[in-house]
Design a protein that fits this description.
3 strands; single chain; 3-stranded antiparallel beta sheet; 116 residues; mainly alpha
């Protein structure tokens, strides 16, 4: 009996997310904008910079940034990590998109078509 070697490279269908997960991830404004912002960056982004960008977009002053940071860290970050679309380095406090996040790109492009 002969066996064929298995290709370890994931196919496009293995990288795609289920549609219900895509819509769940894109449901929240902060999570959706975070995914959009990260889709525009090639490398890891500090969590602080990401939260500042979300706060700027929402017009929140310095007092409100702490609330956004707590909410993002405890609600959105965990969901994005568990969904395998983000990788979080707790030592460096950076986030980076994973390959599966590419499934979200067409939806993010539609959501932010008018963004600079």
């Amino acid at each position: 009996m002969t066996t064929k070697p298995v290709d370890a490279t994931p196919t496009e269908t293995e990288l795609s997310l289920p549609s219900n997960l895509i819509f769940e991830l894109l449901l929240d404004d902060q999570r959706r904008y975070a995914l959009y912002y990260l889709s525009r960056n090639v490398e890891a982004v500090s969590l602080e910079v990401l939260i500042d960008r979300i706060a700027d977009r929402e017009g929140v002053d310095n007092d409100g940034i702490d609330c956004i940071a707590i909410e993002f860290h405890h609600n959105h970050l965990r969901k994005l990590i568990d969904s395998d679309v983000l990788q979080y380095d707790s030592d460096a406090e950076t986030v980076e998109r994973r390959t599966a996040a590419r499934s979200l790109d067409p939806y993010l492009e539609l959501a932010y078509a008018d963004e600079p």
